Amino acid sequence: MDTDISSTAAMEKEFCIVGGGIIGSWAALYLARGGVKTVLMEQFPMPHTRGASHGLSRVIRLLGDDNLAALEFSYAEWRALEQLTGQELLVSTGLINLGPESDEYLTKYMEVVKAGGYHTEWISADELARRFPHVRYPGLGAASDPSGAILLAHQCVAAVQCEFRRLGGRIVQARAEELEERTASVGVRARLLSGTTQVF
User: Fold this and answer.
1) Which CATH number fits domain 7-55+154-199: 1.10.3720.10, 3.90.550.10, 3.50.50.60, 3.30.2000.30?
2) What is the CATH number of domain 57-151?
3) pLDDT on residue 15
4) pLDDT digits 0-9 by tens, 99-123
5) What sections of the chain are H helices per DSSP?
6) Hey, which family's this protein in (predicted)?
7) CA distance 25 to 53
8) Which residues contact 160 (CB under 8 A, 6 or more apart)?
């Protein structure tokens, strides 16, 4: 990470994103794409295990959210980033959601997915045992989501941050301590690795 940033350079930044997980990293990247000078602040060396963006994989799926447009956009953005970086980030696996046949949650989201033009089906307990012999939950069936996939978590964060840097963004390893009122805005007071404090 970039850790040596001068006060002058810091004060020129128009936005400071606190938290370098996947949400903060994408927010910083979108600002950079818009030509906005941006600092992304993360207190721990990346990759680390202290947040929701760590680990080998995270699930992404259509079955489980009302806002299919946002999910479609997310899938498209990950695929576009794969093309840009030449890395595999999203691995299509398909997904099954276990539950009783009368489960209101699964029934609702199967209807949402079907209304969006995507395939989904209910798999009975007997059919589930036939298709997936290693999955045995007596009395439970499953709603299928062929579009389900996994995101390679560490690689995803690194790829977003790499593109952010390519567009001129700076990543600072520092801990945000407090917001500080300034003349025309609110700054973030942070403690750098050196132990000194700085306002972004």
Assistant:
1) 3.50.50.60
2) 3.30.9.10
3) 85
4) 998 889 899 889 988 988 999 999 9
5) 7-12, 22-33, 68-85, 104-115, 125-131, 153-166
6) Belongs to the MSOX/MTOX family.
7) 10
8) 22, 25, 26, 29, 81
